[in-house]
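Margin note from the TA: students keep mixing up input and output lines. Inputs are the sequences; the output is the structure of the whole complex. Example:
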Amino acid sequence: MMAGLFLLFLIIMLMAWFGMRSIAIYLFVITLVLCTVWFLHHATSNLNINL
Amino acid sequence: MNASVARNINAIAILGICGIMLGAYYMQFVKGEFPCPLCLLQRLAMLGVALGAMMNLRFGIHPTHYGISILSAVLGACISARQVLLHINTPGSGYGSAVYGMHLYSWALIVFVVAIVLIGLMLLSDTQYEEYDDYKSTKEVGWFAALVFFVVVLITSANVATTCLECGLQQCPENPTSYKILDK
């Protein structure tokens, strides 16, 4: 999954280089959402703090 | 600030991020510390910050491109803050070794916050946008911008390969100790 996210970023960068701006931006938004989901998936340990 | 100055600042920012990514690789391959899932997500956020700056170089300076960098930096700051909070109350339990007294995720939090502030300052300048009414088409890029672009693409490709080696196509282990693919 994580390698896939890096791969998506690589594709976005290449799209930007070859002038596909709109698609690159849409794909970036999708990737950002996937990163957030994957972050929430991994952030399961309890925090040892008292607020 | 005119567009040319803004482009140079963006290029230097990208090189700074490349330096940070290479520093992370130094810790991974020279010091033998495997990046955890949150560390890898912070790398992705760094690349997102670089992506916005790269689009500024390729298509001309535009607030949308700065927006890409800010969104990535905010996500990166959340991830690194979460990792700081995980270890903040248990001294000596940090992930990996410290660099100049702080762990990489603490440095990452500082980098993301500084990036947000710097991008905010960049957005204050109106004159950088004037030369680019047509921001949707590609612009001529000089050798420096092309080199910067090439370096970022190279680092991203390297991350695809090393993350694949470490995690394979499955979920990355919380505390990785070896390269999954090489173990098979």
